[in-house]
Amino acid sequence: MSEILQLLNDFQGIIGTILGSVTTLIVTDILKKRGQLKNYLVSYEAKFQTFRDVGCSMGGKRDEDFYGYSIKYIIQIYNQSDTPKIMRDFRLIFYKNAKEQYSLIPDNEETRRYSAHISHIANIAPKEIQVLKQSIYVMYDMLDKIQGADKVELQYKDEKDKNRKIILSNKVITTDDYVQE
């Protein structure tokens, strides 16, 4: 037993150096991953459109009938950490009295080409700001699902597969707010 204690005493400096290095590596790794994505809603525009507004007609529909509901928004995302972060599986959700009413996958306006969109995965580098421009369009046959909704929220999954959310609006969606273009 005294031989083991003598051996530990002889290599005390080396053992201390190794333990110090390992501890430093672990703490540094933890601190690098620390930080989260901060989001800033830059703009949010939502409006109803009638058949007249979009220049469309359909049998059985009047010009004053509602054609759809459009939402466009811009969000700035800042990665506070020293490691890359991702945002994926975006969903725009409409709530009424804290109950989910309807959800859609938003279109990425940055990849928009004519009438097609490419789905979006945001890969945000460390200490970088990225701008997300997204939109959705709810057609006339689904307007009853969003009518009266009192919250619009963007949900996504992060790099750890956790659900995250960004509240876009707490305003009640009602056709009474329609403004003719």
Molecular structure report:
Helices cover 22% and strands 42% of the residues. Strands 3, 4, 6, 8 and 9 form a 5-stranded antiparallel beta sheet that branches. With 181 residues, it is of the alpha+beta class. The protein has 4 helices and 9 strands. The chain is rod-shaped.
Tags for this model:
single chain; 181 residues; 4 helices; 22% helix; rod-shaped
Chain-wise SSE layout:
Elements: H1 2-10, H2 12-33, E1 37-50, H3 51-54, E2 66-79, E3 85-96, E4 99-104, E5 107-108, E6 122-124, E7 129-139, H4 143-146, E8 151-157, E9 163-169
Antiparallel strand pairs: 1-2, 2-7, 3-4, 3-6, 3-8, 5-7, 8-9
Structural class, judged by helices and strands? alpha+beta
Sum up the overall morphology in one term.
rod-shaped
Please, how many helices? 4
Poorly predicted residue ranges? none
Work out the strand percent: 35-45%
Mean pLDDT over all positions: 86
Rounded radius of gyration (Å): 26 Å
Question: What separation lies between the terminal Cα atoms?
Answer: 90 Å
User: What is the share of helical residues?
Assistant: 10-25%
In brief:
A hairpin with a 2-residue loop joins strand 3 and strand 4. This protein is of the alpha+beta class and 181 residues long.
